[in-house]
Amino acid sequence: MVNYFKLFVLPIIFLTVGACKSNDNNVFCAEIYIPMVSNINYVNENGKDLIFSDSPLYPIEGIELYKIAPNDQHIPLSFTINRAQKFIAVNLEKMENGTYYMQLKPGVIDRISYTAKIDEGDPCKDYKLTDLKQNDKSGQYDKKTQVWTFKK
């Protein structure tokens, strides 16, 4: 009787333990559109913040972001301001190459171009920024803060 009990219980234990194995290969990708975002800030040659300092050269209230349509119409881009971490987060189109314009103040406009590629390491195969340029000069990317810094 004890042998029958062991034969009955052991397969149940093996099935239970086998069913509890973690399956890290299952990844669920978001069903909603999540924009590609670039976090940017400007500093001068000495590293002084030009947007978020106490007396900024480019006050945040005067900054405008837009792209230019084929008919030369300016199309505003949505962006958010993170004063605590000192960056402007710009929502970008998910494409390999794109360009937008940043008016820091009247008469001071930078052309910002970006390059992105599909991140093969991402199980959802989403775009990731690989380069961000201000007037054809690459910005500096800080992996820790995830902010692109441009020098002016």
Question: Reading side by side through the largest sheet, how are the strands ordered?
Answer: 3-2-6-7-8-9
Report mean pLDDT, rounded to a whole number: 85
DSSP strand count: 11
Strand coverage percent? 35-45%
Computed structural class: mainly beta
**Multimerization state:** single chain
Distance between the termini: 85 Å
Gyration radius, to the nearest Å? Answer: 25 Å
How many distinct helices? 1
- Major beta sheet summary: 6 strands, antiparallel
Low-confidence stretches: 2-7, 9-23
H-E string: HEEEEEEEEEEE
* Estimated helix fraction: 10-25%
> In one word, what is the shape?
globular
Layout of strands and helices, then pairs:
Blueprint: H1 2-19, E1 36-43, E2 64-68, E3 74-76, E4 79-82, E5 87-92, E6 97-105, E7 108-118, E8 127-134, E9 137-138, E10 140-142, E11 147-151
Parallel strand pairs: 1-11
Antiparallel strand pairs: 1-5, 2-3, 2-6, 4-5, 6-7, 7-8, 8-9, 10-11
What does this protein look like?
This protein is mainly beta. Helix content is 12%, strand content 42%. The chain contains one helix and eleven strands; from the N terminus they run αβββββββββββ. The chain has one helix at 2-19, and strands at 36-43, 64-68, 74-76, 79-82, 87-92, 97-105, 108-118, 127-134, 137-138, 140-142, 147-151. The strands form two sheets. It has a six-stranded antiparallel beta sheet with strand order 3-2-6-7-8-9, with no helix packed on it. β6 (97-105) and β7 (108-118) form a beta hairpin. The longest helix has 18 residues, at 2-19. The chain is globular and about 50 Å long. The model is unreliable at 2-7 and 9-23 (pLDDT under 50).
